[in-house]
DNA sequence: CTGTTAGCGCTTTCAT
DNA sequence: ATGAAAGCGCTAACAG
């Protein structure tokens, strides 16, 4: 039913080969032939069949995006940028959530291979389990990691410098006179938080301050309870807090409220990740904002360059700096 | 280089046809042959080539999702559900943002056709310009609309009842004794807001109340300014406000703060769309929560049924009810 | 500059 | 139950 290249060629009175050359302008075609082909294609309403093209040429022009959860704001915004940039270059973006499970990551990668996807942009589910990603790359798929660097493993990576993020957050508080800082994180070995914690802790110690580490777990309610306990019991009470991700920020604010303390007056707070509502909290949150759009843009561009063979140099390891946005939740220590 | 069906067939000492039958269990294959084929496939590490399969069978098992902006929380969460549910059924989800522009919607639909995608889940960019969607459906692609119903145009739709949403929000406020309600929205003819505004307005009038319509525009700052003006000048001051989407909520809260008024005490507020931070605002926001996951789940299931031919009945028009979650931003009129 | 010829890897009649 | 053969629609050598 659909119009094929063959139909166009017949209508234009040329061979399929010539029609293909005219349509995709490569090789050489006489002006006359080209014109007739283009006209025939337009008249018949011809549309390239990308599937046939892909099978024959071995290139599906589809890039996969595999974050932990495509529904999370950080990854969703990246997906938006990725799809826009890739589309301009003629690629399509396919997405899945890995749920931070290596097993799912693996199975999705298999299905990618079956679908001949030439590129994968992934937020690796695990720091150490990445042989499947390396193997994928060795077999010829372009792989770009975001959020967690795998550059040491030979995989292009676009991340934010989480160590610096932690250090910068701490430095801000230290500059305000705080000396005992509470670092609030879910668990010891998940995602980007360990680096953030290390960065903050070292900055605090270097300034002669005291680190109060609060490992609160990954569940909102439990985390709130734990933070409450620690805040209430602590003999060396922190005067400032750094919750290391969005969930911890929620738990921390909830805890502060339960204890009837006030942000800024009783406790300074630097959160991670900006958010439209962060500005509307009372007081508005001082945050470390990750350059989300930048990461998406870079990842897409790098991917395109790798796929087009415009770039064949060593593995790229871009670390962006998070930006401190000072608003109202941090104040001089009183 | 990659292992093909041919290799497997050869290794198992059968024809390609038999190998295919064994691998995809259809037709009839003797137990012995089947076993040998399966073993050969496993030994050689055979993986189906979906592209070839798609070209030959005409089914790519790829569903496209085309929201206004995949980076927006509402759509991102839906994407997450969609990809999970579709994957279980062996489909892949491809996404793009239409930027609410019909033109982009059209061009993406073309590229879908070229890629032989059998299904589209779309948040229509426009209420009236939808012939391209109808045409797509007529040509055999399964189309499901979300967020805005196109059921009258013959396209399956899963939406929330925005009229009821507006009415329910207003009813809550009316029950609290409010009589003059401010309805805050960006513009007259964008997305789901007109229905919400109508629903709220009619509920208010039916209760003998007064509607203060505040059309604030689509830009956050400008909207804030306009809301400030209207709130300050209005001779018949509203005692409660309903901002009709997330952006309007932000603008409204900013405006209230600028005017040094207090939510709940001076003005009651019902926002649309729940949000983890809504609970952390002071006071926590009373909201109309849309059943996001439900919509995603329904859209995916319906799409699968249509694609598998398990459902061939009339056009589906599912309207979910948004849920009122009462928190602290609404109070009895004083 | 253009046509012919082979397939890409798979499914699907149609015989056997 | 199985095999042979014919493509799906396109690209890419290779001739001419």
UniProtKB/TrEMBL annotation, chains A, B:
<dbReference type="GO" id="GO:0003700">
    <property type="term" value="F:DNA-binding transcription factor activity"/>
</dbReference>
<dbReference type="InterPro" id="IPR000843">
    <property type="entry name" value="HTH_LacI"/>
</dbReference>
<dbReference type="Pfam" id="PF00356">
    <property type="entry name" value="LacI"/>
</dbReference>
<dbReference type="GO" id="GO:0000976">
    <property type="term" value="F:transcription cis-regulatory region binding"/>
</dbReference>
<keyword id="KW-0805">Transcription regulation</keyword>
<dbReference type="InterPro" id="IPR028082">
    <property type="entry name" value="Peripla_BP_I"/>
</dbReference>
<keyword id="KW-0804">Transcription</keyword>
<keyword id="KW-0238">DNA-binding</keyword>
<dbReference type="InterPro" id="IPR046335">
    <property type="entry name" value="LacI/GalR-like_sensor"/>
</dbReference>
<dbReference type="InterPro" id="IPR010982">
    <property type="entry name" value="Lambda_DNA-bd_dom_sf"/>
</dbReference>
<feature type="domain" description="HTH lacI-type">
    <location>
        <begin position="3"/>
        <end position="57"/>
    </location>
</feature>
<protein>
    <submittedName>
        <fullName>Transcriptional regulator, LacI family</fullName>
    </submittedName>
</protein>
<dbReference type="Pfam" id="PF13377">
    <property type="entry name" value="Peripla_BP_3"/>
</dbReference>
């Amino acid at each position: 039913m659909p119009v094929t290249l063959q139909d166009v060629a017949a209508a234009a009175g040329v061979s399929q080969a010539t029609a293909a050359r005219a349509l995709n302008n490569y090789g050489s075609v006489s002006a006359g032939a080209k014109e007739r082909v283009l006209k025939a294609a337009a008249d018949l309403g011809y549309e390239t069949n990308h599937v046939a093209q892909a099978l024959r040429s071995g290139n599906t022009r589809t890039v996969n995006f595999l974050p932990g959860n495509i529904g999370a704001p950080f990854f969703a915004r990246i997906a938006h940028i990725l799809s826009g940039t890739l589309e301009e270059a003629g690629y399509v973006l396919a997405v899945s959530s890995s749920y931070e499970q290596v097993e799912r990551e693996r199975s999705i990668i298999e299905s990618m291979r079956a679908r001949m996807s030439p590129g994968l942009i992934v937020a690796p589910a695990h720091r150490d389990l990445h042989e499947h990603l390396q193997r994928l790359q060795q077999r010829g798929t372009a792989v770009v990691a975001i959020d967690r660097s795998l550059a040491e493993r030979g995989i292009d990576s676009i991340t934010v410098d989480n160590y610096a993020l932690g250090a910068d957050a701490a430095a801000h508080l230290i500059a305000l006179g705080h000396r005992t800082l509470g670092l609030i994180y879910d668990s010891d070995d998940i995602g980007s938080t360990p680096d953030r914690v290390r960065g903050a802790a070292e900055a605090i110690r270097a300034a002669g301050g005291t680190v109060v580490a609060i490992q609160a777990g990954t569940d909102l309610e439990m985390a709130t309870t734990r933070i409450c306990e620690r805040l209430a019991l602590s003999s060396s009470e922190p005067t400032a807090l750094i919750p290391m991700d969005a969930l911890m920020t929620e738990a921390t604010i909830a805890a502060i409220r339960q204890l009837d303390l006030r942000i800024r007056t009783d406790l300074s707070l630097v959160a991670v990740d900006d958010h439209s509502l962060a500005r509307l909290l009372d007081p508005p949150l001082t945050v470390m904002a990750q350059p989300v759009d930048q990461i998406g843009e870079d990842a897409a561009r790098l991917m395109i360059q790798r796929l087009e063979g415009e770039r064949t140099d060593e593995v790229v390891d871009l670390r962006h700096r998070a930006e401190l946005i000072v608003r109202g939740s941090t104040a001089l220590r009183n």
